[in-house]
Amino acid sequence: MLNIAGRSHKLCDGISRRDALKIGGLGLGGLSLPQLLQAESRAGLGKSQKSIIMIYMCGAPSHQDMYDLKMDAPSEIRGEYRPIETSVPGLQICEHLPNLAQAMDKCVPLRSVYGSPNGAHDSFICYTGHTTQNQPPGGWPSLGSTISRVQGPTNPAIPAFVGLSPDTRHPPYGSPGHPGFLGVGHAAFRPSGPTRKDMVLGQVDSNRLSSRKELLSSLDLIRRNMDASGTMAGLDLLTQQAFDILTSSKLVDALDISKEPQEVRDRYGNQGSEKNYGDGAPTNPEHFLMARRLVEAGARVVTLNFGRWDFHSNHFNGMKKTHLPQFDQALAALINDLHERGLADDVAVVAWGEFGRTPRINKDAGRDHWPQVGGALLAGGGFRTGQVIGATDRLGAEITERPIHFGEVFASLYKFMGLDPHAITLDDFSGRPQYLVDQQHHALPELM
After folding, report:
1. Is the pLDDT reported for residue 28 higher than 90?
2. Of 259, 337, 323, which Cα lies nearest the Cα of 295?
3. DSSP letters along 280-312, please?
4. Could you give the angle at the alpha carbon of 153 between the alpha carbons of 252 and 244, nearest 5°?
5. Distance CA 381, CA 299 (A)
6. Counting C-beta atoms within 10 Å of the first and last residue's C-beta, which end of the chain has fewer, N or C?
7. pLDDT of residue 218
């Protein structure tokens, strides 16, 4: 068993989350970029070039209106959507997902996902594979934070874990995945808002930057000698990464989708919005393209959130007018793009929400929370695609074949990344070793 010791104390959580990475702060006073990196990344190098893109569908999409339509059910359960054929003979999905239908030979719909304990809106299980109940000291870390801790960046100028998740009015919808007991040093790097223009030197030349670095080192030595809590530990590596980012254009270039040909940008779609949808996330197709550029640049895990799928009313109109067509175009473009660029075996994609929706349509033409079963879509990763895993009954209410826990998907993703989730442990805040997934959850053999 490989044990990777974690910190036995909490890191300082008083770090500003301002959307600015000011080079001036690297001199006296602010240290804003190193502090943000301390909260949002980890220095160090790794060897694996494999990556994961995780799409969190805020609010939980209806499984029976996307990949598991129930045409033999009564109308008050079946709904108004109709199935269409896909590129996989015998596999049908929703008529409002025509692009994904054509790419279904490159995908794996999961029709029997379970694990949400109570149907509460929280992205936690989608990012960790665990529930929020009975957590170890410090809390379970997200997949991105775990990969950051175990494998580190592939390039010093590209954070291992990047979150393209803007803040939302319902905070769990805006989470890119929390670092838990791994500490804020392994939280997602979140390049939102005006941050990007501050990730370059601007008018500060390299000599001046070097002088500031020497001054910073002197100040850090004083602060480190005064620090009894240990929160300065590792700051040298984090500060070095701040300078690596500032002296390299690699991350800024990866975030700049204007470098893509217009036909590629159009392929991902232009009907979405950068504004949050209600208390959820944007329906922003640019994030799908940005995610592809980031994994090409070396990011190991990129998370993004999409829309607000919690349609307790006006469900069918809301889904078909905004969410389904925009999600369909952007995700299909990403999947096809990965294949065309030779990345399909090296980048795994998963799109899901925290649970499913009720079989019976309510009086407001909506579907409510249904933690008993939900759905997901996998692609890439060198997986055996063009198949369906799992099944539900004729009402879409109960699992009848191959239950799939969130933790099993996580075990599969860790295995794809070259990690044995049952051999590697990370220490929680009490010093107790914790496996990457619960021991009863194993990688899906159907994928391998």
Report:
1. no
2. 337
3. S--B-THHHHHHHHHHHHT-SEEEEE------S
4. 50
5. 15
6. N
7. 54
Residue ranges of the domains in the chain? 2-18+51-199+252-447
The pLDDT value given to residue 240: 61
From CA 208, how far away is CA 364, in angstroms rounded?
63
Dihedral (Cα; 18, 21, 22, 26), 10-degree rounding: 110
Q: What is the pLDDT of residue 198?
A: 61
Q: Region 203-223: what's the mean pLDDT?
A: 56
- Identify the residue whose tokens are 């291992």: 160
Mean pLDDT of 204-217: 57
Q: Which helix (H) or strand (E) holds 377?
A: strand 374-380
Cα–Cα distance between 406 and 127 in angstroms, integer?
9
Q: What whole-number distance in Å separates Cα of residue 100 and Cα of residue 94?
A: 9
As assigned by CATH, the class of the 2-18+51-199+252-447 domain is: alpha beta
pTM across the whole model: 0.85
CA dist., res. 11 & res. 161, Å (int): 18
379-418 pLDDT per residue, tens: 999 999 999 999 999 999 999 999 999 999 999 999 999 9
Structure tokens of 364? 């407001």
Q: What is the DSSP-derived secondary structure letter of residue 71? A: T
Give the total residue count for the chain: 448
DSSP structure class, residue 422: T
